[in-house]
Amino acid sequence: MEEVFGPEGLIAQAHPEYEYRPGQIEMARAVMRAFEEKRHLIVEAGTGTGKTLAYLVPAVAAALGGRGRVIVSTGTKNLQEQLMEKDIPFLQSILPKKFTATYMKGRNNYLCLNRLGRAQASPVLEGLEEVDYFEEVVDWSTESERGDRAELSNLPESLSFWRHIDARSESCLGQKCPDFDPCFITRMRNRAQESDIVVVNHHLFFADLSLRNSMYSRRSASHRGHCFGVLRLAGFELSDRRPRAGSWNDHYRRGGR
Ligand code: SF4
């Protein structure tokens, strides 16, 4: 940790205005120890401690050190975006070992190719002005890598037909879907499976954990090896708010054991 956070460390070399903060390195060491000892950790640290890097650096070290993929779960979209657009690219530029990261949003942020195809055959538009928007979405669907609604930044926030073509789970045909392979959700999951760090929100994290746990309990013993492998992903949650009774603030979790 000294090599990264120390006064002459990698961050200081990249940021001339970097200020060495003992609290930050103390937190980073505590997080690293928690990863090594496979135990929970709750951290409360004030504004200006540099908490994000203090958990991200050990998380990357743990993932690259063979401890499994690390899930970083946050409470707000702003923090997810800050992680993906600022903090993670910064670490990717300064850390000597390369690592990969994927951002998983809720399903209704992504386009469903199957529903889009069906919407082209049956009207879902509420006004003539939406015709151009719909055509723009159709064009974008053939070029987009991620199918993320946020890429359509020039379209209005409230596209009334989006709810008819998004990838929400209740409309998903799963593996029976003829568009399963090119599906943006399938591709996002494949990317996540290959990434060292996966950034999600709490809702997605716990919904997924709950689903996996119920699947796990229903599987026969012969299937448990596979589920066990999935459940061994590490979870890590952080919020800037003070912890409330019954909620986790800074939380490290390793499941499947
Ligand atoms: S697998 Fe589900 S989300 Fe993906 S294209 Fe098919 S129906 Fe849509």
Roughly what percent helix? 40-55%
Low confidence ranges: 215-257
Shape type: elongated
Order of helices and strands: HHHHEHEHHHHEHHEE
Task: Calculate the terminal CA-CA distance, rounded to whole Å.
Answer: 28 Å
Radius of gyration: 21 Å
Largest sheet: 5 strands, mixed
Q: Give the strand order, joined by hyphens, for the main sheet.
A: 2-3-1-4-5
List the total number of helices.
11
The CATH topology of the largest domain: Rossmann fold
Strand content: 5-15%
Small-molecule components bound: iron/sulfur cluster
Average pLDDT level: 81
The second-level CATH architecture of the largest domain is 3-Layer(aba) Sandwich
Helix/strand layout:
Elements: H1 2-5, H2 10-14, H3 22-37, H4 51-67, E1 70-74, H5 77-94, E2 101-103, H6 113-121, H7 129-143, H8 162-165, H9 184-194, E3 197-201, H10 202-218, H11 224-231, E4 234-238, E5 251-254
Parallel strand pairs: 1-3, 1-4, 2-3
Antiparallel strand pairs: 4-5
Helix pairs in contact: 3-4, 4-5, 10-11
The site of iron/sulfur cluster (SF4) has 12 residues, from helix 6.
